[in-house]
Specification:
alpha/beta; 4-stranded parallel beta sheet; two-stranded parallel ribbon; 12 helices; 10% strand
Length: 324
């Protein structure tokens, strides 16, 4: 999302716009693409500078430690029913020393950028960047591929996020195209929307279990202690999102459960790398395939490894969908 946004700003922005000098702070896997984008900038008025934060640490660490596991809907009725919630805690429970190392690297980059930084756009999964911006007094907002409701679910009027919306479900699976069904894979309760009245107490309990898991998980607590020792203020996952100047989500509000969007949430729709439009003349085989019948688009994600069992389950789901 960030690279796509940068490419639009540098190559498709209005010619009368002021000069843009963009600095991208990210991990090593983004370097090759960022440098290629920087070389492709046709205007001397604009520039892109890449600053490496080292080896990717968000997903690779938990994979190396064997912490990734498959999970089903969250439940309070089984021994491992909250595995999906613990998985999220493990996901954000960065190695404390690596976290502080990246945090200090970001502060170092900030101090080297002249003139001052006007605004920073931080990914939702990068609390390290949020902490660094707060410490360095750099104004920041959110730019992410998440749904808008995911950013404001528990701030809905009348606490609707706890009782009306299924526990930790954020995307409404209603396609904008009549022949395409979108499938999302997230830890969730499996309840319908709105949550049936007799399931409201159970749904509230799941929400409370979700927040309790994030607050008490050993990895999160260890990281909180290290952050405090480094002088970082505030909690790891409790950021003042309602006070940010913007939260840009690569989402469409109409595709989500009906909700009240905070005034700082922006729904621009999908944020994608600019590509030539597909045409039936240029891609006749693809056009023929899409025109046969309803098409199912499955987002398998880009940061996870799937077992043979996972692939078989997805294939079975496709077959069952085809029989409907």
């Amino acid at each position: 999302v960030h690279l796509a946004t940068i490419e639009h700003m540098l190559t498709l922005g209005p010619t009368e716009a002021p000069p843009l000098h963009i600095h991208l702070l990210s991990f090593d896997p983004a370097e090759k693409r960022a440098l290629a984008l920087a070389d492709s900038v046709g205007s001397e008025r604009n520039s892109l500078t890449f600053h490496s934060l080292g080896e990717l640490m968000l997903f690779t660490e938990i994979c190396d430690n064997g912490l990734i596991d498959r999970h089903g809907p969250a439940t309070l009725l089984h021994k491992n029913g909250l595995k999906s919630y613990r998985f999220l805690a493990e996901l954000f429970g960065f190695n404390p020393e690596k976290y502080i190392g990246v945090y200090e690297r970001i502060l170092e980059v900030f101090s080297s950028i002249k003139p001052k930084i006007h605004i920073a756009a931080v990914d939702l999964t990068m609390p390290i960047g949020m902490d660094a911006c707060t410490t360095a007094n750099v104004p920041w907002g959110i730019l992410c591929p998440n749904s808008g409701l995911e950013l404001s679910k528990h701030e809905q009027p009348f606490l609707r996020g706890f009782w009306k919306f299924p526990a930790y479900v954020t995307i409404r699976l209603i396609p904008p195209h009549p022949k395409i069904t979108y499938v999302s894979n997230r830890p969730y309760s499996g309840f319908a929307y709105p949550v049936p009245l007799h399931l409201v107490p159970y749904n509230v309990a799941l929400n409370l279990a979700f927040w309790r898991t994030l607050a008490t998980h050993p990895r999160i607590k260890a990281l909180e202690g290290r952050r405090s020792k480094a002088g970082i203020e505030g909690k790891l996952l409790d950021k003042p999102l309602d006070k940010l100047p913007f939260m840009i989500c690569a989402s469409v509000k109409e595709m989500e459960y009906p909700h009240v969007a905070p005034p700082n949430v922006v729904y621009p729709g999908p944020i994608l790398v600019p590509v030539p439009p597909l045409s039936a003349k240029q891609y006749p085989d693809l056009s023929s395939f899409l025109g046969r019948d309803r098409t199912i688009v499955i987002n398998m994600g880009s940061n996870f490894w799937y077992t043979e069992e996972d692939v078989v389950n997805v294939a079975d789901a496709i077959v069952l969908a085809g029989r409907r």
